[in-house]
Amino acid sequence: MMTADFIRIHDVIDPDAATYGARGVRLARMAALGLPVPRGLLLARSFCDKIARDGAAAHFATELDDILAGLGDEVLLSLRAAPEKGEWGGPEALLNIGITNERLPALIERVGEAGAYTLYFRLIEGYGAAVEGLDPDDFETLVADQVKYHAVKSEGDLPLEAHKTLVEEALALYADEAGDPFPQSQREQLIHAMDALVRSWNGVSARILRQSYGAPEDAGLALIVQRMALGVGQGVCGAGLAHMVDERSGAPGLSGRFLPQAQGYDALMGLRTPHLITAAARESARQSGLSLEELLPDAPRALEAHYATISHGLGDAYGVEFTVENGALWVLDAVLSPRSARATVRIATDLVRIGAITREQALLRVEPRALIENLHRQIDPSAPRDVCGHGLPASPGAATGRVTFSPEEAIQLDAQGEAAILVRIETSPEDIRGMHSASGVLTVRGGMTSHAAVIARGLGLPCVVGAGDLRLDQKARAIVTQDGRSFSEGAIITVDGTRGEVLAGAPDMIAPELDGAFELLMSWADQVREIGVRANADTPQDARVARGFAVDGIGLCRTEHMFFHEDRINTMREMILADTVGDRRSALDRLLPMQRDDFVELFSIMRGLPVTIRLLDPPLHEFLPHGRDEMHDLAEAMDVPVTTIIERAKSLSEFNPMLGKRGVRLGITMPEIYDMQARAIFEAAAIVNTRNLEQVEPEIMIPLVSAAREVDVVKARVDEIAAQVMAEREVRLTYRLGIMVETPRAALRARDLAEGSHFFSFGTNDLTQMTYGLSRDDAGRFMRDYVNQGVFAEDPFHSLDVEGVGELLLIAARRGRQINPDLMLGLCGEHGGDPNSIHFCKLAGFDYVSCSPYRAPIARLAAAQATLLSREHTDLPQDDGA
Amino acid sequence: MMTADFIRIHDVIDPDAATYGARGVRLARMAALGLPVPRGLLLARSFCDKIARDGAAAHFATELDDILAGLGDEVLLSLRAAPEKGEWGGPEALLNIGITNERLPALIERVGEAGAYTLYFRLIEGYGAAVEGLDPDDFETLVADQVKYHAVKSEGDLPLEAHKTLVEEALALYADEAGDPFPQSQREQLIHAMDALVRSWNGVSARILRQSYGAPEDAGLALIVQRMALGVGQGVCGAGLAHMVDERSGAPGLSGRFLPQAQGYDALMGLRTPHLITAAARESARQSGLSLEELLPDAPRALEAHYATISHGLGDAYGVEFTVENGALWVLDAVLSPRSARATVRIATDLVRIGAITREQALLRVEPRALIENLHRQIDPSAPRDVCGHGLPASPGAATGRVTFSPEEAIQLDAQGEAAILVRIETSPEDIRGMHSASGVLTVRGGMTSHAAVIARGLGLPCVVGAGDLRLDQKARAIVTQDGRSFSEGAIITVDGTRGEVLAGAPDMIAPELDGAFELLMSWADQVREIGVRANADTPQDARVARGFAVDGIGLCRTEHMFFHEDRINTMREMILADTVGDRRSALDRLLPMQRDDFVELFSIMRGLPVTIRLLDPPLHEFLPHGRDEMHDLAEAMDVPVTTIIERAKSLSEFNPMLGKRGVRLGITMPEIYDMQARAIFEAAAIVNTRNLEQVEPEIMIPLVSAAREVDVVKARVDEIAAQVMAEREVRLTYRLGIMVETPRAALRARDLAEGSHFFSFGTNDLTQMTYGLSRDDAGRFMRDYVNQGVFAEDPFHSLDVEGVGELLLIAARRGRQINPDLMLGLCGEHGGDPNSIHFCKLAGFDYVSCSPYRAPIARLAAAQATLLSREHTDLPQDDGA
């Protein structure tokens, strides 16, 4: 009869890890799947607790003896620890339990003299260490002495007599040190071994160690006793590990290693060079040792069959740990196949294909951020890295190219077909053309929302910013590292925007891969997700990328970027520096057709989908030239003294530009600007809608609102211009007008603001800055310290601060919809590409998130996961109304 | 029998202005007080509505005739408009109604021929204009023709026959233009006059005009009919206005004017030079015309008696509008005594003294901001102003002095006993010494929280900042105005920090006056108020001023200002530029005794009262030198190359300093700084408490908190240092640790933060900046436009934004006290000196407000008013928990 305390591996139904340990569960499942798992029994955690209390002998019931007897005559046993989770660690296994002087002749018959003596010696050594606390070094000294005495290279070369001598010496050493002779009964060995493993598990250092791996204080242990598959013997014998998927790509492919005449550890400890699994692999590696396939031709097929069974039964890709005993293949364990971030996608879709998991499971199986690896060129993880500078990972992917210090050079190099890395202190609007031509960007200053970072993300260009440990030696035209290395113009460097590192030279790269698996997973995500994913796209080029990533529209078109083009920046500057409203209007009249053409192109690309256009937002001084030379050029173009330009620029400069005269404040104080933009939008919509069946519905967004009257004022003018354009062009246009909620006050006053608005789009970059009183660009300096010290649980610019900023979002959403139940809610900060933040938006009932085009796939997957997870739990931070 | 439609002036009980108009109410009250008010009747608003509908004739009932008959035989009548509020305006009065050809002889008998004809002429002219819409110019042409014909200087010199002729001509003109002869019945004249006044009231332009003065759309009119006190006649006759309090000081003192042989208008229109009231006044003015006192010796005493009666009965200081008819003095109206802001205090306390009003009424009678006039030297309101520049009123009061462009010169001038006005583009910490020596400060840039503004307010120094229409010509060392005037070094200018103006030259000034009335009012305020008033005081000097204004403690001591002293700024800079923690500690060790000494002095001054000390808040780059020269000096002092200083300063500079590495972020990343400050505080407290019976209880405040863990980290270290100091000095110290709530997130997370805090002090400057996403310094440029256009109802930096920022305060207060019911709540932004904001704090249950020392009296009065007003209504903005 069985008790809950122990059970035969092959008798278990629905095992759980808390009772039998993770490995116990795996073994039981594999046994149930019909895999050749050596017979044995699982000792439950409850049983181990009793052993801890009373010793194993007190609980070694007759049933236990019966089961062990049922494993066969003179079998050797293994005893393994099986904690609830594998990563908690645990004491080492004890193998070959049951060798005694009496049983030795039978063993010799089975595995040969050398093998039998070796196994006996290892048992005495291992048992002595585990049970009696003997020093393994003392045993190893015996071996070393023999090696020396016989003048051979290693233990493997010792003559048979030496092995015999070693066993004798080991038995003597044991008896001497332990005070008792080595136990000559399998039962006795097993009982003491059980006691030893349980004792070790409960030791102080083991406790501390496993708690550091996340184990709870009362983590318990289960044990596994199994018949040994020996791996040592007369026929084909050995131990190995086979994987059936490629670690980098996730594609099917058998690989692994096999060590003839070896047991578990030896194969894994790597004392000897392992052989390969397939003949083909051996050939390509030009190894002398025969592959498993050559030794045992059926083995690869058997392993693949086992892999399929395991993956199906356990619902993931597992490698197989196996032992071959006289040509028979035994499965010792299954270990999760290691995989690169990129491989997770392929593996997940393949598992669905073979019916091992559902589509929903596959969607949950892939970490959305891992898609970055699919989307961008990356440095090969196995390539050596000569890191020479550190900064912020401003835009993912890696690029190699020649150091250039000016946009002009970047353009030149690009024209010559050479990759350029544009290196600047900071970038400014004048650099945009150069950035288009560069393969990567590196700045010494700036934060995650600096000009370089924002533009690079938009372009999908690898970018590292704020690399403060690099110095730009302008005179020598070189980058100098902290340890004095210098990279002159033309030197080859690599920027790793995924990690925020600068590397010397050109490490191996792996190309982005948007293969079938990626597309398949994305299509499933789109079927599941309930929250829209739009892109932040400022230019037709961005829009094309966005459309390529199958977004649901544009959630944020920052019109200011349109003004940075070479052919219009000077007109923009004339507008800004205009002395009279008349002059300003005249400059705006020249900007109108340019902006209208941009919108025509943008709307044509996005037709059929919504496009949210943010009216001009940044403080005007951002458009003015920064360098002395450019100021001179502008002065010449405008025919004014350069001092006028300098003075005007100075008078426009601000103490805290983030909190300055920008957003709707421009719209109120210089209404001509928004008038022009509204007209450009409506005229473009009229043109595009006349041409196409699929209509565009522009959504006009007012930035940086803090009071309802601001919206009223702008809305009145926009509505009037819409009416004018409709009358002039004899068309009907539908459009929506909404606000960007990015000040805490806008969130609090959501009721007032919802009245005149079709939508709220939360600008969580600014909202986070204002809620924390923390500029993202300036926070870079200490954010890492803050997060490391646990002062902030996470960088609130990476993952939405649910407790603070999140409460403002919830307040605004609830108050807004109280007044206007149809209010559309979106999020268009950088958090729009962050999975946790997307999950929050889903729970908060948002209609969409918007992120940079290259983040859209991540957002689509995260949105799908949010839907799947919200079916399980819906715990939003509760606002108790207090 | 009387109806509600009209009532005798002397019969009214408890009149109300909505029914009888403000003047009707005053007349009825004065009649009831026994004053010699001419008899007459009040026509209610309801009656005037009927007149408007049907014409006066339809409602001229017999009772009305009876009342009019009761006023006496052949009396002349006046008809006056009486709107609900005097400031709404209304049609002109019609006087002398009832003169007809038939009655003329009797009138001649009463007032003489010239007088009678003049009155008749004026009646025809006035009536013609009001009733028939005739052009008064046509009548004036008749007069001018006679003046010319008789070759005299003015109408008054015309011979009798001319007056006769004028009446004949006027009657003919009237008949000609109106188409009917001038009506020869008092009743008919009165009825048409009533119609005319009501019609005029309901005219479009009158409506628009009064609505611009704040009248509601349906503002109605009442009318007053009174027996004329003629002012023209055989004995002492005339009209006048007497005031019994001095307009500037509010002290008792009879003044006014009297015009013999005149009626209401003439006296007020100022066509003739009026005589004075008292003989003494005539003497000092060397006027030829006899004073009223000389004409009618009892009149001054009578007027004073009437004044006392009126002030008592009407509860305020009123001047008396009077007419003397044959030596009899009639009171026509009472007009509120005009008064400077400063005089309101004296008048209010005097009214209490005579029992006219209660102390509570007196407290409510004085606009708290008016106290500024008492506290600071001001430009005489009657002095001519040669304004040459405009800026922000950064610190109230006015000062005249010589233009100086450097702190050194200011110090030098001051040493020579000359007043200096320090003129700078902006000030920086290096200017502080110069500011101490200057009489006033003027900056071309900067906002209300700029360095200059903050320091000047602390010093009580008149200051104008951001005077963008002035240009500093550094080469010529001169200020140049927009119209090209130039003020070189040494030129005399005046800064008016109350108005934000710069004046050429030295206008007359009036000195500050903290007289008995001021002190009395303050003492009443302190008895009434329930909310504490503390001062923001950074230095011992500030603390002395604050103690002088009887504050309840220091609510904000900004420790950074202590570091700007000449003798320690370099040590501070060494600390900032230190390369290692060791170097930093060594500089801090040298700062410790200096800071401790400051606290010893501060605590000694404030002993017995709480002192809230804010740990270091500003970003460190604020302490670094700005000018090239000073950088060189520092480099020399520190023995490092100047490039090191420049580079280090550059690396510390921030994009948005307001949102940068400041406040508790310094405390977390460089804990040595707060350690030093905590030690200085505790050691100073130990020293002071050992010396004195009255103990000081320091309150340590952590700035710019946004997460609870920040508080935990700082609190742990502060508590540890307190324990160390207590052990070292063998004393017991009590102290409180709290936070400055100035980020929206701190308000939202108040529950977490309240756990470890004794108090919350709301820093509403920063909180407003962050809630609006608006930097106060940068908002200056457009705030005026915004407020004028009504985009913001008020400048939220002047008066707390109750709807947005206020909600955050309420959320924080409620959540904080949920967790910690004893949590002390204060406000220490500039709003602490703003009456509306103080009212809000009272309603929100705050314990105190803290403001700059010179605002403390304003805050004390406002706090008293808040208590008095909150007894009446307690409408806080409701947070519906949504």
How are the secondary structure elements laid out?
The structure is a homodimer of 882-residue chains.
Chain A: E1 6-8, H1 17-32, E2 40-43, H2 45-54, H3 62-70, E3 77-83, E4 94-97, H4 104-111, H5 113-132, H6 136-149, H7 160-178, H8 186-201, H9 204-212, E5 221-227, E6 238-245, E7 252-260, H10 264-269, E8 275-276, H11 279-285, H12 292-295, H13 299-314, E9 318-325, E10 328-336, H14 341-353, H15 359-365, H16 371-375, E11 378-379, E12 387-390, E13 392-395, E14 398-404, H17 407-415, E15 420-424, H18 432-437, E16 440-443, H19 451-459, E17 463-465, E18 471-473, E19 478-480, E20 486-488, E21 492-496, E22 501-504, E23 509-510, H20 516-528, E24 532-536, H21 540-548, E25 554-558, H22 566-577, H23 581-606, E26 610-614, H24 628-638, H25 642-652, H26 664-669, H27 671-691, E27 697-702, H28 708-729, E28 736-741, H29 744-748, H30 750-755, E29 759-762, H31 764-772, H32 776-788, H33 805-819, E30 824-827, H34 835-843, E31 848-851, H35 856-872
Parallel strand pairs in A: 14-15, 15-16, 16-17, 24-25, 24-31, 25-26, 26-27, 27-28, 28-29, 29-30, 30-31
Antiparallel strand pairs in A: 1-2, 2-5, 3-4, 3-5, 6-7, 6-9, 7-8, 9-10, 11-23, 12-22, 13-17, 14-21, 18-19, 19-20, 21-22
Helix pairs in contact in A: 2-8, 4-5, 5-7, 5-8, 6-7, 14-15, 14-20, 15-20, 20-35, 21-23, 22-23, 23-27, 24-25, 27-28, 34-35
Family (chains A, B): Belongs to the PEP-utilizing enzyme family.
Protein name (chains A, B): Pyruvate, phosphate dikinase
Cofactor (chains A, B): Mg(2+)
